[in-house]
Amino acid sequence: MKKLLSILLMALMVFGLAACGKKKVNVGIVLPTKDEPRWVQDETRFKEALKDTKYSVEILFSQGSPAKEKENVEALIAKGIDVLIICPQDGSAAGAAVEAAKKEGIKVIAYDRLITDTDAVDYYVTFDSIAVGEAQAQYLVDQAQGKGNPLYLYAGAASDNNAFLFFEGAWNVLQPKIADGTFVIKNSSEAVALQSKAELTRDEMAKIIGQVTTNWEFNEAKNKAEAHLTAASDADKGDVFILAPNDGTARAIADAFDADSAVKSYKITGQDAEKASIQYIIDGRQSMTVFKDVRTLVKDAINMAVAILEGKTPETTGSYENGKIAVKAKQTEVIVVKQDNVKSALIDSKYYEASDFTGLK
Ligand code: BGC
User: What domains can be seen in the chain, in order of their start residue?
Assistant: First the structure.
Protein backbone atom coordinates (compact mmCIF):
# COMPACT_ATOMS: atom_id res chain seq x y z
CA MET A 1 0.00 0.00 0.00
CA LYS A 2 2.80 2.37 1.05
CA LYS A 3 4.71 1.47 -2.09
CA LEU A 4 1.67 2.17 -4.24
CA LEU A 5 1.20 5.54 -2.55
CA SER A 6 4.79 6.59 -3.13
CA ILE A 7 4.59 5.53 -6.80
CA LEU A 8 1.41 7.55 -7.16
CA LEU A 9 3.05 10.55 -5.51
CA MET A 10 6.06 10.34 -7.79
CA ALA A 11 3.87 10.03 -10.85
CA LEU A 12 1.94 13.09 -9.74
CA MET A 13 5.15 15.05 -9.22
CA VAL A 14 6.54 14.15 -12.65
CA PHE A 15 3.22 14.99 -14.27
CA GLY A 16 2.98 18.26 -12.37
CA LEU A 17 6.50 19.28 -13.36
CA ALA A 18 5.83 18.49 -16.96
CA ALA A 19 2.70 20.61 -16.81
CA CYS A 20 4.51 23.59 -15.23
CA GLY A 21 7.55 23.29 -17.44
CA LYS A 22 5.45 22.96 -20.58
CA LYS A 23 6.66 25.51 -23.10
CA LYS A 24 4.00 27.71 -24.59
CA VAL A 25 3.65 27.50 -28.35
CA ASN A 26 3.08 30.90 -30.00
CA VAL A 27 2.07 29.83 -33.48
CA GLY A 28 0.41 26.58 -34.50
CA ILE A 29 0.55 25.42 -38.10
CA VAL A 30 -1.77 22.72 -39.44
CA LEU A 31 -1.17 21.27 -42.92
CA PRO A 32 -3.44 18.81 -44.77
CA THR A 33 -1.32 15.73 -45.47
CA LYS A 34 2.20 14.34 -45.74
CA ASP A 35 1.09 12.10 -48.60
CA GLU A 36 1.43 14.86 -51.18
CA PRO A 37 4.83 16.42 -51.94
CA ARG A 38 3.21 19.86 -52.09
CA TRP A 39 2.58 19.98 -48.32
CA VAL A 40 5.89 18.39 -47.35
CA GLN A 41 7.44 21.17 -49.40
CA ASP A 42 5.48 23.74 -47.33
CA GLU A 43 6.68 22.12 -44.09
CA THR A 44 10.30 22.28 -45.26
CA ARG A 45 9.97 25.91 -46.28
CA PHE A 46 8.32 26.80 -42.96
CA LYS A 47 11.18 25.13 -41.08
CA GLU A 48 13.80 26.98 -43.14
CA ALA A 49 12.05 30.31 -42.65
CA LEU A 50 11.54 29.76 -38.91
CA LYS A 51 15.14 28.77 -38.09
CA ASP A 52 15.95 32.10 -36.48
CA THR A 53 12.60 33.15 -35.07
CA LYS A 54 12.22 33.96 -31.40
CA TYR A 55 8.70 32.58 -31.40
CA SER A 56 7.97 28.94 -30.81
CA VAL A 57 6.10 27.18 -33.58
CA GLU A 58 4.63 23.71 -33.95
CA ILE A 59 3.59 22.09 -37.25
CA LEU A 60 1.02 19.27 -37.34
CA PHE A 61 -0.40 17.27 -40.27
CA SER A 62 -4.02 16.18 -40.60
CA GLN A 63 -3.41 13.20 -42.89
CA GLY A 64 -6.40 13.93 -45.06
CA SER A 65 -8.87 13.79 -42.16
CA PRO A 66 -11.01 16.72 -40.95
CA ALA A 67 -11.41 14.88 -37.60
CA LYS A 68 -7.65 14.64 -37.14
CA GLU A 69 -7.42 18.28 -38.16
CA LYS A 70 -9.82 19.28 -35.39
CA GLU A 71 -7.79 17.23 -32.88
CA ASN A 72 -4.64 19.00 -34.05
CA VAL A 73 -6.24 22.41 -33.57
CA GLU A 74 -7.46 21.41 -30.09
CA ALA A 75 -3.98 20.18 -29.15
CA LEU A 76 -2.50 23.50 -30.27
CA ILE A 77 -5.15 25.48 -28.39
CA ALA A 78 -4.18 23.52 -25.27
CA LYS A 79 -0.57 24.59 -25.83
CA GLY A 80 -1.60 28.23 -25.63
CA ILE A 81 -1.14 29.36 -29.24
CA ASP A 82 -2.01 32.97 -30.11
CA VAL A 83 -2.07 32.47 -33.88
CA LEU A 84 -3.23 29.49 -35.94
CA ILE A 85 -2.06 29.09 -39.54
CA ILE A 86 -4.18 26.40 -41.14
CA CYS A 87 -4.55 24.86 -44.57
CA PRO A 88 -7.84 22.97 -44.32
CA GLN A 89 -8.37 19.46 -45.61
CA ASP A 90 -12.01 20.32 -46.19
CA GLY A 91 -12.74 24.06 -46.39
CA SER A 92 -16.20 23.84 -44.89
CA ALA A 93 -15.59 21.12 -42.28
CA ALA A 94 -12.65 23.14 -40.88
CA GLY A 95 -15.18 25.76 -39.70
CA ALA A 96 -15.76 23.94 -36.41
CA ALA A 97 -12.03 23.74 -35.66
CA VAL A 98 -11.39 27.44 -36.25
CA GLU A 99 -14.51 28.42 -34.33
CA ALA A 100 -13.04 26.61 -31.32
CA ALA A 101 -9.83 28.63 -31.80
CA LYS A 102 -11.70 31.90 -32.14
CA LYS A 103 -13.50 31.25 -28.85
CA GLU A 104 -10.10 31.24 -27.15
CA GLY A 105 -9.18 34.59 -28.73
CA ILE A 106 -6.77 32.98 -31.21
CA LYS A 107 -6.33 34.71 -34.58
CA VAL A 108 -6.78 32.41 -37.56
CA ILE A 109 -4.89 32.65 -40.85
CA ALA A 110 -6.18 30.41 -43.66
CA TYR A 111 -3.17 29.19 -45.60
CA ASP A 112 -3.45 28.48 -49.36
CA ARG A 113 -7.00 27.09 -49.06
CA LEU A 114 -9.84 29.29 -47.82
CA ILE A 115 -11.99 28.14 -44.90
CA THR A 116 -15.61 28.64 -45.94
CA ASP A 117 -18.99 29.34 -44.31
CA THR A 118 -17.66 30.71 -41.02
CA ASP A 119 -16.74 34.08 -39.55
CA ALA A 120 -13.91 32.55 -37.52
CA VAL A 121 -11.20 33.19 -40.07
CA ASP A 122 -9.28 36.46 -39.77
CA TYR A 123 -6.87 36.42 -42.71
CA TYR A 124 -6.02 34.44 -45.83
CA VAL A 125 -2.63 34.05 -47.53
CA THR A 126 -2.86 32.59 -50.99
CA PHE A 127 -1.64 32.42 -54.55
CA ASP A 128 -3.79 33.83 -57.31
CA SER A 129 -5.70 30.61 -57.89
CA ILE A 130 -7.89 31.92 -60.70
CA ALA A 131 -4.66 32.88 -62.50
CA VAL A 132 -3.45 29.28 -62.01
CA GLY A 133 -6.44 27.90 -63.93
CA GLU A 134 -6.18 30.62 -66.56
CA ALA A 135 -2.49 29.84 -67.13
CA GLN A 136 -3.22 26.12 -67.51
CA ALA A 137 -5.98 26.78 -70.02
CA GLN A 138 -3.99 29.41 -71.91
CA TYR A 139 -1.22 26.88 -72.40
CA LEU A 140 -3.66 24.43 -74.02
CA VAL A 141 -5.17 27.18 -76.19
CA ASP A 142 -1.71 28.26 -77.36
CA GLN A 143 -0.85 24.70 -78.37
CA ALA A 144 -4.04 23.94 -80.28
CA GLN A 145 -4.37 24.34 -84.03
CA GLY A 146 -7.49 24.12 -86.17
CA LYS A 147 -10.84 22.86 -84.95
CA GLY A 148 -12.16 19.76 -83.22
CA ASN A 149 -9.26 19.11 -80.85
CA PRO A 150 -10.23 16.50 -78.24
CA LEU A 151 -10.28 18.01 -74.74
CA TYR A 152 -10.31 16.04 -71.48
CA LEU A 153 -11.11 17.97 -68.29
CA TYR A 154 -10.05 17.04 -64.75
CA ALA A 155 -10.51 18.91 -61.47
CA GLY A 156 -9.41 18.91 -57.84
CA ALA A 157 -11.42 17.91 -54.76
CA ALA A 158 -14.84 19.52 -54.36
CA SER A 159 -14.11 19.97 -50.63
CA ASP A 160 -11.27 22.35 -51.57
CA ASN A 161 -12.36 25.88 -52.46
CA ASN A 162 -9.27 26.16 -54.68
CA ALA A 163 -10.62 23.45 -56.98
CA PHE A 164 -13.42 25.89 -57.87
CA LEU A 165 -11.04 28.81 -58.38
CA PHE A 166 -8.73 26.75 -60.61
CA PHE A 167 -11.70 25.52 -62.63
CA GLU A 168 -13.23 28.97 -62.89
CA GLY A 169 -9.93 30.34 -64.24
CA ALA A 170 -9.61 27.50 -66.73
CA TRP A 171 -13.21 27.88 -67.89
CA ASN A 172 -12.71 31.64 -68.46
CA VAL A 173 -10.10 30.84 -71.09
CA LEU A 174 -11.32 27.50 -72.45
CA GLN A 175 -15.03 28.22 -72.85
CA PRO A 176 -14.69 30.64 -75.82
CA LYS A 177 -12.46 28.07 -77.50
CA ILE A 178 -14.98 25.32 -76.88
CA ALA A 179 -17.77 27.57 -78.19
CA ASP A 180 -15.83 28.31 -81.40
CA GLY A 181 -15.09 24.63 -82.03
CA THR A 182 -11.34 24.67 -81.33
CA PHE A 183 -11.88 22.11 -78.57
CA VAL A 184 -14.45 19.35 -78.17
CA ILE A 185 -15.00 18.07 -74.62
CA LYS A 186 -14.74 14.27 -74.54
CA ASN A 187 -15.13 13.21 -70.93
CA SER A 188 -17.85 15.24 -69.20
CA SER A 189 -21.52 15.33 -70.15
CA GLU A 190 -22.05 18.01 -67.47
CA ALA A 191 -19.41 20.26 -69.06
CA VAL A 192 -20.90 19.65 -72.51
CA ALA A 193 -24.34 20.62 -71.21
CA LEU A 194 -22.92 23.93 -69.94
CA GLN A 195 -20.45 24.63 -72.72
CA SER A 196 -22.27 27.64 -74.15
CA LYS A 197 -22.20 29.49 -70.80
CA ALA A 198 -19.29 31.91 -70.41
CA GLU A 199 -19.78 32.20 -66.65
CA LEU A 200 -20.75 29.34 -64.41
CA THR A 201 -22.38 29.53 -60.99
CA ARG A 202 -20.78 27.62 -58.14
CA ASP A 203 -23.52 24.98 -58.42
CA GLU A 204 -22.86 24.55 -62.12
CA MET A 205 -19.14 24.20 -61.50
CA ALA A 206 -19.91 21.69 -58.74
CA LYS A 207 -21.75 19.55 -61.30
CA ILE A 208 -18.75 19.42 -63.61
CA ILE A 209 -16.22 19.01 -60.79
CA GLY A 210 -18.37 16.22 -59.34
CA GLN A 211 -18.01 14.35 -62.60
CA VAL A 212 -14.31 14.93 -63.34
CA THR A 213 -12.86 15.23 -59.84
CA THR A 214 -9.57 13.54 -59.02
CA ASN A 215 -10.09 14.29 -55.33
CA TRP A 216 -6.44 15.33 -55.57
CA GLU A 217 -5.57 11.63 -55.50
CA PHE A 218 -3.16 9.87 -57.79
CA ASN A 219 -5.15 6.63 -57.99
CA GLU A 220 -8.49 8.30 -58.49
CA ALA A 221 -6.98 10.37 -61.30
CA LYS A 222 -5.46 7.30 -62.93
CA ASN A 223 -8.64 5.21 -62.66
CA LYS A 224 -10.78 8.01 -64.01
CA ALA A 225 -8.47 8.65 -66.96
CA GLU A 226 -8.41 4.94 -67.79
CA ALA A 227 -12.21 4.75 -67.62
CA HIS A 228 -12.50 7.77 -69.93
CA LEU A 229 -10.10 6.24 -72.40
CA THR A 230 -12.00 2.95 -72.36
CA ALA A 231 -15.25 4.79 -73.05
CA ALA A 232 -13.78 6.95 -75.83
CA SER A 233 -13.52 5.83 -79.45
CA ASP A 234 -10.26 6.06 -81.40
CA ALA A 235 -11.67 9.15 -83.12
CA ASP A 236 -11.89 10.85 -79.69
CA LYS A 237 -8.17 10.31 -79.18
CA GLY A 238 -5.35 11.18 -81.60
CA ASP A 239 -3.71 14.46 -80.55
CA VAL A 240 -5.36 15.24 -77.24
CA PHE A 241 -5.43 18.17 -74.80
CA ILE A 242 -5.79 17.55 -71.10
CA LEU A 243 -6.60 20.00 -68.31
CA ALA A 244 -5.04 18.38 -65.22
CA PRO A 245 -5.42 20.41 -62.02
CA ASN A 246 -2.06 19.70 -60.36
CA ASP A 247 1.19 17.81 -60.78
CA GLY A 248 0.37 14.65 -58.86
CA THR A 249 -2.80 14.06 -60.85
CA ALA A 250 -1.11 15.20 -64.09
CA ARG A 251 1.51 12.46 -63.86
CA ALA A 252 -1.16 9.84 -63.16
CA ILE A 253 -3.34 11.00 -66.06
CA ALA A 254 -0.35 11.42 -68.40
CA ASP A 255 0.74 7.84 -67.73
CA ALA A 256 -2.75 6.57 -68.58
CA PHE A 257 -2.91 8.50 -71.87
CA ASP A 258 0.66 7.54 -72.71
CA ALA A 259 -0.26 3.87 -72.41
CA ASP A 260 -3.14 4.15 -74.93
CA SER A 261 -1.98 3.34 -78.45
CA ALA A 262 -4.76 5.43 -80.05
CA VAL A 263 -3.36 8.56 -78.36
CA LYS A 264 -0.80 9.96 -80.80
CA SER A 265 0.25 12.90 -78.64
CA TYR A 266 -0.97 14.64 -75.55
CA LYS A 267 -0.54 18.08 -74.03
CA ILE A 268 -1.18 18.17 -70.30
CA THR A 269 -1.13 20.89 -67.67
CA GLY A 270 -0.07 20.78 -64.03
CA GLN A 271 0.55 22.87 -60.96
CA ASP A 272 3.02 23.05 -58.02
CA ALA A 273 6.35 22.47 -59.79
CA GLU A 274 6.83 19.22 -57.87
CA LYS A 275 10.26 17.71 -58.44
CA ALA A 276 8.79 14.58 -60.06
CA SER A 277 6.83 16.74 -62.49
CA ILE A 278 9.81 18.90 -63.35
CA GLN A 279 11.57 15.68 -64.33
CA TYR A 280 8.46 14.72 -66.37
CA ILE A 281 8.63 18.11 -68.10
CA ILE A 282 12.35 17.70 -68.87
CA ASP A 283 11.55 14.24 -70.26
CA GLY A 284 8.62 15.52 -72.34
CA ARG A 285 6.00 13.54 -70.39
CA GLN A 286 4.20 16.55 -68.87
CA SER A 287 3.83 19.79 -70.85
CA MET A 288 3.82 22.52 -68.23
CA THR A 289 3.33 23.31 -64.58
CA VAL A 290 2.33 26.40 -62.65
CA PHE A 291 5.05 27.25 -60.16
CA LYS A 292 3.81 28.65 -56.88
CA ASP A 293 6.85 29.80 -54.91
CA VAL A 294 6.01 28.39 -51.50
CA ARG A 295 8.82 30.47 -49.96
CA THR A 296 6.74 33.60 -50.62
CA LEU A 297 3.55 32.13 -49.16
CA VAL A 298 5.42 30.97 -46.06
CA LYS A 299 7.02 34.40 -45.65
CA ASP A 300 3.62 36.11 -45.98
CA ALA A 301 2.05 33.76 -43.43
CA ILE A 302 4.89 34.26 -40.94
CA ASN A 303 4.89 38.04 -41.39
CA MET A 304 1.17 38.07 -40.75
CA ALA A 305 1.53 35.93 -37.62
CA VAL A 306 4.34 38.11 -36.28
CA ALA A 307 2.35 41.29 -36.94
CA ILE A 308 -0.53 39.81 -34.95
CA LEU A 309 1.76 38.71 -32.10
CA GLU A 310 3.19 42.23 -31.98
CA GLY A 311 -0.22 43.85 -31.92
CA LYS A 312 0.07 45.32 -35.42
CA THR A 313 -2.34 45.04 -38.34
CA PRO A 314 -1.10 42.59 -41.00
CA GLU A 315 -0.67 43.88 -44.51
CA THR A 316 -3.34 42.66 -46.96
CA THR A 317 -4.00 43.28 -50.64
CA GLY A 318 -7.66 42.38 -51.09
CA SER A 319 -10.34 40.06 -49.79
CA TYR A 320 -12.10 36.75 -50.56
CA GLU A 321 -15.77 36.00 -49.91
CA ASN A 322 -16.03 32.76 -47.95
CA GLY A 323 -19.82 32.39 -48.03
CA LYS A 324 -20.19 34.22 -44.69
CA ILE A 325 -17.69 37.10 -44.62
CA ALA A 326 -15.10 38.84 -46.78
CA VAL A 327 -11.75 37.56 -45.51
CA LYS A 328 -8.82 39.99 -45.79
CA ALA A 329 -6.20 38.40 -47.98
CA LYS A 330 -2.65 38.70 -49.24
CA GLN A 331 -2.18 37.21 -52.67
CA THR A 332 0.91 36.07 -54.61
CA GLU A 333 1.44 35.72 -58.34
CA VAL A 334 2.29 32.46 -60.13
CA ILE A 335 4.79 31.54 -62.86
CA VAL A 336 4.30 29.17 -65.80
CA VAL A 337 7.13 26.64 -66.17
CA LYS A 338 7.83 24.70 -69.39
CA GLN A 339 10.89 22.88 -70.68
CA ASP A 340 12.52 26.15 -71.78
CA ASN A 341 12.42 27.97 -68.45
CA VAL A 342 12.96 25.23 -65.84
CA LYS A 343 16.46 26.57 -65.28
CA SER A 344 15.65 30.26 -65.00
CA ALA A 345 12.50 29.80 -62.91
CA LEU A 346 13.56 27.04 -60.55
CA ILE A 347 17.31 26.59 -60.51
CA ASP A 348 18.50 30.19 -60.79
CA SER A 349 16.00 31.19 -58.09
CA LYS A 350 17.51 28.44 -55.89
CA TYR A 351 14.14 26.72 -55.42
CA TYR A 352 15.73 23.45 -56.53
CA GLU A 353 19.26 22.30 -57.34
CA ALA A 354 20.24 21.33 -60.87
CA SER A 355 21.48 18.02 -59.41
CA ASP A 356 17.88 17.15 -58.44
CA PHE A 357 17.23 16.39 -62.14
CA THR A 358 18.70 14.41 -64.99
CA GLY A 359 18.92 15.64 -68.57
CA LEU A 360 18.48 19.31 -67.64
CA LYS A 361 19.97 21.60 -70.31
C1 BGC B 1 -3.31 23.57 -53.63
C2 BGC B 1 -2.48 22.91 -54.70
C3 BGC B 1 -2.41 21.42 -54.44
C4 BGC B 1 -3.79 20.82 -54.20
C5 BGC B 1 -3.73 19.38 -53.78
C6 BGC B 1 -4.66 22.90 -53.56
O7 BGC B 1 -5.45 23.51 -52.61
O8 BGC B 1 -3.44 24.95 -53.89
O9 BGC B 1 -1.19 23.49 -54.72
O10 BGC B 1 -1.82 20.76 -55.52
O11 BGC B 1 -4.47 21.55 -53.22
O12 BGC B 1 -3.12 19.23 -52.56
Answer: 21-121+294-332 (3.40.50.2300), 129-292+337-356 (3.40.50.2300)
Nearest CA to ligand 1 atom 9: 272
- Which residue intervals of 189-343 are DSSP H helices? 189-193, 202-212, 218-231, 247-258, 275-282, 294-309, 342
Type and span of the H or E element at 39: helix 37-50
The sign of the CA dihedral 42, 47, 50, 52 is: negative
Q: Are 185 and 240 in contact (CB under 8 A)?
A: no
162 alpha carbon – ligand 1 mean position (Å): 7
Mean per-residue pLDDT for 188-217? 98
Task: Answer yes or no: is pLDDT of 339 > 90.
Answer: yes
Nearest CA to 274 out of 303, 254, 259, 300 is that of 254
User: What lines the ligand 1 site, CB under 6 Å?
Assistant: 36, 38, 112-113, 156, 160, 162, 216, 246, 271-272
Atom of ligand 1 nearest to the CA of 33: 12
Mutate which of 34, 38, 114, 218 for ligand 1 pocket (most atoms within 8 A of beta carbon): 38
**What's residue 1's pLDDT?**
53
Contact indicator for 330, 300 with CB cutoff of 8 Å = yes
